[in-house]
Amino acid sequence: MITDGGLATELEARGHDLSDPLWSARLLVEDPSEITAAHRAFFRAGADIATTASYQASFDGFAARGIGRQEAARLLRRSVELAQTARAEMADDGRKRWVAASIGPYGAALADGSEYRGRYGVSVAELAAWHRPRLDVLAEAGPDVLALETVPDTDEAEALRTAIAGCGIPAWLTYNLDGNHTRAGQSMAEAFAIAAETPEIVAVGVNCCSPDDVPAAITVAGETTGKPVIAYPNSGEGWNAQQRTWVGPSRYSGEQARQWITEGAHIIGGCCRVSPTDIAEIAQAAHGADQ
Q: Which of 71, 27, 16 is nearest to 52 (CA)?
């Protein structure tokens, strides 16, 4: 199964300036039809899953724009509805597609690159209390799965495990790694063990890490949890939080995706700087690996 690539990457390619604390969530307010168009582009490229424009959307972030909680909740629901609309518009080809509601980490809402560090100085209980209201709204919108993604450390994973209890929607949990450790320095085995006994978490893996970090993570995630493994790294470029830009060469390829499937990944895709063209390449590689 193929998930999409970088939603913000596609929106920027369509001419939108997302140098904003709300990132792609800004277009939930200003130009929602463009989000639907970006979802369609990934579906047409071969993606089976659309990930919503809610990664950096939060009640705090919307409040900083003068948007109250009721309107913020409506915008969060809109993120799911836009992906569902794109799916409905593609229904004529008979393929089954899914919508994943993106639950980005607390650090993403800070818009300062903290999701690449973790350890925010906030307790697990405080993180759970921060995540739960947004998570509840997104779950009520009816996505197929909750994408607990780009998690930088075990504290936030513990908080998310608490927050999703009883929400009624299955979730996947993906970490943001640096080599063989979370961004906060915990081992992969320690990190994935958090999901092993959590029934609401139905798949585990990594996202927004380097493609080079994926193979080892696939092995550890599968061995630690026994659950399906998902991998959707970024292009391999590095994020400079001070300059708010990506630096370095891309290392993302369809050949790597074929390797991920061989090594046990059940769902593959891309994150930042991964375009519909890239998704088309890995979709083709995935179909070849299945033959």
A: 27
